[in-house]
Amino acid sequence: MSKARAIGIDIGGTSLRAALVDSSGHILAREETATLAQAGPQAVVQQIADLVAKIAPDRTGITGAGISSPGPIDTERGLALGVPTLAGWSDIPIASMIQTALNLPVRLENDAIAAAIGEWKFGAGQGLSHLVYVTISTGIGGGVIADGKVLRGRMGMAGHIGHMTIERDGAPCACGNRGCWEAYASGTAFARRISPHFPNPKSAFAAAPSGDPRALQLVTEQADWLGIGIANLLHLFSPQTVILGGGIANGFPLLLPGITHRVQANAMPAFRDVPIVPAALGENAGLIGAAAMVM
Ligand SMILES: [Zn+2]
């Protein structure tokens, strides 16, 4: 008997990905294209339909399509609410548009929550009842599993952890506020701090192991900012583990000592032994998590 299969779609401001996933979380087929981010919602819906036609020309046994989208989106009503990276995605019934185009049941999810579901079901959080997934790239996003359930909150918008204020009247954030965690600990903030010395985070991570003092200092500072936010998350959600994903997670082994140092200083003793681990599914977490939602 063949296993259930579902389609996962990951809409990014840069890349659009689609995958056919089986009930064990294995990717059976995968396609990717550059998102027509400035062309409006209908053009992106057509791109999704084209990708799905490639990965699943035969729809037999496919249970539905899960959509991972950047926010803010109202996942209860299937609405895009003004996604900054996608032109025209404002008060658009994106879930029903995709459902019509694919002729399949569709579920819409905030991208970081979809990735958290992927890591929970098939990655670094398998078997756990409580976890926090943190994605650190251009911004910082999050997804929380609590008491064995996905924490969605009002309109499915829970877990916007990058916008917790950690500094009064601090650095400006893309959201319009000041002092957000994202303004200090995102990949963008890290790239800005290292820019006088290194062209990109990758080169700073490459220079640190050989003992380059500037690289070590910048990586330690980045780890410290991450640790401040992670200690807050431990107190808020009491997870069994914290999973770090996104581009900055490529430097995980170098960042972990500094993160741990700050967490040991800031977290109350009962919270200090929670493991902090790298994501296991990489850039496929959102695709696999989205598919898992409709399996
Ligand atoms: Zn913010």
Please report the first level of CATH classification, the CATH class of the largest domain: Alpha Beta
CATH superfamily placement of the largest domain: ATPase, nucleotide binding domain
Mean pLDDT: 95
Structural class: alpha/beta
Bound chemical compounds? zinc ion
What is the number of strand segments?
13
Individual helix count? 9
Q: Please, could you describe this protein's structure?
A:
The chain is of the alpha/beta class and 295 residues long. The chain folds into 2 domains: 5-115 and 284-293, 2-Layer Sandwich (Nucleotidyltransferase, domain 5), CATH 3.30.420.40; 126-279, ATPase, nucleotide binding domain (Nucleotidyltransferase, domain 5). It contains 9 helices and 13 strands. It has helices at 41-55, 94-102, 111-122, 181-185, 187-194, 201-207, 213-237, 252-266, 285-293, and strands at 5-11, 15-22, 27-34, 62-69, 73-74, 79-81, 90-92, 106-110, 131-136, 140-146, 149-150, 241-245, 276-278. The chain has a 5-stranded mixed β-sheet, sandwiched between helices. Strands 11-10-9-12-13 form a 5-stranded mixed β-sheet, with helices on both faces. Strands 5-6-7 form a 3-stranded antiparallel β-sheet, with no helix packed on it. Strand 2 (15-22) and strand 3 (27-34) form a beta hairpin. The radius of gyration is 19 Å and the shape is globular. The two termini are 16 Å apart. Bound molecules: zinc ion (ZN). Zinc ion binds next to loops.
Write the layout of secondary structure elements.
Blueprint: E1 5-11, E2 15-22, E3 27-34, H1 41-55, E4 62-69, E5 73-74, E6 79-81, E7 90-92, H2 94-102, E8 106-110, H3 111-122, E9 131-136, E10 140-146, E11 149-150, H4 181-185, H5 187-194, H6 201-207, H7 213-237, E12 241-245, H8 252-266, E13 276-278, H9 285-293
Parallel strand pairs: 1-4, 4-8, 9-12, 12-13
Antiparallel strand pairs: 1-2, 2-3, 5-6, 6-7, 9-10, 10-11
